[in-house]
Structures are given as structure tokens and as C-alpha cells.
Design a protein that fits this description.
489 residues; alpha/beta; Aldehyde Dehydrogenase, Chain A, domain 1; Aldehyde Dehydrogenase, Chain A, domain 2; 15 helices; binds nicotinamide-adenine-dinucleotide
Amino acid sequence: MSAGTPMRLDNWIAGAARPSRNGRTLDKFDPHDGELLAQIADSEALDVADAVAAAQDAFPAWAALTPVRRGQILTDVVTGMRRRSLELADCVARETGKPPQDARGEVGGAILQGEYFSGEGMRLYARTLTSGLPGKSSYTVRQRRGVAGLIVPANTPIANIAWKVFPALICGNTVVLKASEDAPAIAMLFAELSKEAGVPDGVFNVVQGRGDPAGAALVTDMRVALVSFTGSTAVGRWIAQEGGRRLARVSLELGGKNALVVCDDADLDQAVHWAALSAFSNAGQRCAAGSRLLVFESVYEAFRDRLAAKACALRLGVGSECDLGPLISRRQQQSVLAAVEQALSQGGRLVCGGSTPAETSLARGCYVQPTLIDELLPHAELSCREIFGPVATLHAVRDIRHALDLANATEYGLTAAIHTRSVDRALWFTQRVRAGVANVNLGTYGSEPHMPFGGFGASGNGTREPGVEALDVYSELKNISFLARETLI
Ligand code: NAD
């Protein structure tokens, strides 16, 4: 993706680019300067139906390949990603506005996902079982489910794609990916790479466009056997209902309001370092962002002042010297600024940030300054609701029990972190915190391809991706038993 004439980005169906049937397009703007980057297919149900039909046609042959062979083909996709990693990173940086080193890191993470799940072709372990019946042997096998409908957001677009597409394909499913309307180009680049690597036409398809109608049509299509969705809790709730109605398998990776606890015995330098990364890296656009900072009273002021100084020193922009870029869209920027205003009207006090940056070079972009708010009650709406921007609230806590109570006091339950030198405190907290991921002396984010990630409560529906646990999402278990008759020996 390069500057200049806006790109035209169509759907990718049966191995070829195809415009939407209605011929309409949506505009995709550069988050850094507001320039028109691309015009993307504004797909509707008919386009989704075409993509699902292509995936259905390709399914029998793809499912018939051995997992080892599928793994070899996916290894070739990974090799292509590695070869074209700079191009992938440029594309991510351009359409999200994140600094180049962050985009390269994300591409590296996506490649690791691909490596991990390609290798799964030589494992795909299931179980052997005992039986109560003499002579009976029993074991399970993992079988593909069919057409997988995968819906992703734009915050880490190539990582989000790899996170879902590799496990879906290794298990023998074919895929229709609903790309994010805010990151449409990276999905097409991945499609191109897949074709080059020998993924058969129709095995991987992309539908561009808005959540409703394009994403919604994928969710309600009876031929889509499983829907894996990463996005907001509100949309996840609707998908759970629709999927439930037709008994499709649904995996939901949703929002978070993740607590980072700083105890009185914490290494404050480390705590400030990880809190700043958790709250502000990727411009706070992480489901696992540390947006609720719970700090022991005795170190509260010292921590707050050091974190505020760090936040003020962060550089905004798209250069390699920058720490964070803009938000993904004007809509998201406005929504974050409105949330800050609301927090202040509810009794919050601005510690730093709170508005758009003063630099004229950033004036046309969707930037929001790294923002810290304190004095907001821990149960106030904005202390508990995900904002999805570079905004964190600070709350003083009396002790570890108070910290745990507040960490568990939102409807979410995605991740948490605690900073302490005490093993006892760390164990006590990590065992009790209501979160799918609990880190000690780290940030609230940082999952790896072989580690299960997912949340309690409103952060998901109990599934875990990636790791081997993702195989439970993308495959169906079958139990096979047989009886050896001793009389025949
Ligand atoms: P979003 O829910 O608005 O959109 C996500 C995707 O869903 C987009 O592709 C969108 O087009 C599509 N979509 C929207 N409405 C739809 C509908 N009715 N039917 C089907 N698809 C629909 O979310 P967003 O603002 O783009 O992304 C931010 C959210 O994603 C945050 O809540 C964040 O926490 C969450 N997220 C979660 C994880 C995780 O692993 N838990 C990771 C990244 C982001």
C-alpha cells in the first residue's frame, strides 16, 4: 500500500479479486493524515453468499488432504510471509498508522502463529481411552467442521488474521474472512500470498465491507459451520444469539477493562514501564490494554507522577522514533475524546493528556494524547467500560484484598497484572483474579502463539485461542471404538 492514488480493494473469492455485486465502495482514510487510501468493496449478503459457496466447493478436496500435507502448504504461506515481511509491515503501518517497528513486531507475531499451526499438521493430537468392556479399544480423532466464518478487527490486523486463519485451515476447514473495514489491504495481501504459496482457490476467501451487512450475513449463513469473532462485546452478544439460534459453533474474543495492580513492594521503575506499555502502546487499541491502574495508597502519588511524566514524554506519530500512532479512524478518535469528557463530568480529574496533540503535523490525524484520569470512583461507568484508546484511570487501593475486589468489579475478565516482589501476594492474586490471563511483573498483554488467550465474563464465551486450545474451536471431536473378538484369534 503506497501513497498517491487510492487503491481499489475488492473481495477475494475462489482465488480472484471480485468487486461487490452492487458495485458500491467504502472509503478508507489514512489515520495519520486523513488522506484517502483505498476504496473498498461495500459487500452485502449476495457477495457473502458467493464467498461461502466458493469455500463450500473447495471444502471436500481441502479436507481430504492429510493434516501433514496441509501443514506443508501452510509452511509455504509462512515462508512467503517471511519473504515479504517488510511489505506486510508497510501495509499494516500505513493502514493502521502504527509506527514501523510496531508493525514489524506484529508481522513477526503473525509469522510465529503460522509456524506454530503449520507444525500442528504433524501433531493434531487427540486421545486414546480406556474402556469398561473387555477387548474394546477407543480413541478420539479431530475432524474438520466445514466453512469457517472469521471476523476480525483492525487493531493488530495481520496478527488477528493469522490467529484465526492458520488453525482454521490446518484443521481442514475452508475460510471466509470478513476483513475489518479499517484494515482492508492487509487481508488482500494475505490472500495473494496464500495463492502464491499453493493454497487452492476457494480455500481462503475474503469479504470486504461493513459489519452489517457483510459480517452479519456471514453469521447468519446456514452453510457456515463455525463463526470465530474478535471484536466488541456488543457485537459479540448479537453473534452469540444468532449462532445459538442455528447451533453454529461460536468463538468470541471480546473486550476488556484490564487491571494492573501496583503493590507497595513493587519495583516502581518496572511497574511504570509496564503500565505505560499496557495503557498506551498501540494507542491503547488492545483488548488486553491495562486501562484500570490499581495502586497501593503508600506508593500512589509516586507512581502516578512517574507514570504521568512518562506519558507526557511519549512521542506521537508514524516515524520510527515514535511510541504510538493515531487511532484507527475519526469515529474512534471522537468516541475516545467523548469518553474522556464524560469521565471528567463524572468526577474524574485529568492527570495528563485528554485531548488531541498540539503539533500541527498531527492535526489532520486521528490522534489522542496519552491520557491518565484519577479521582474517578472505581465503580463509575468510565472506570469500568472499555474505551479502546490511550486512556487509563488510576485508583488508590488500601491493600491486596481491596485491589482484588476492584480488579474483579467490571463485567469483563480478560487479563490482569500485578507488580510485587512477594511470591505469596502474586500467587494469591493470580489464583483469585477473574481473568483468562494473569501476569506477574509484566504488562496486561503479551500472549504467544502456544498460549491460550481468552476471557471470563463479558470478554468472551469461554473459548481459548490460540494454543492447542484453538483446535477445540476449529475441529470436531469424534470418538471411535472397536471390539477385538478373542474367539476369532
Ligand atoms: P467491532 O465489534 O465494531 O468490529 C469488529 C469486526 O466485526 C469488524 O470486522 C466489523 O466489521 C465486524 N462487525 C461489526 N458489526 C458486525 C455484525 N453485526 N455482524 C458481524 N460482524 C460485525 O470492534 P472494533 O471496534 O473494530 O474492535 C475493537 C474491539 O475488539 C474492542 O472491544 C476490543 O477489545 C476487541 N478485541 C478483542 C480481542 C480479543 O482477543 N479478546 C482482540 C482485539 C480486539
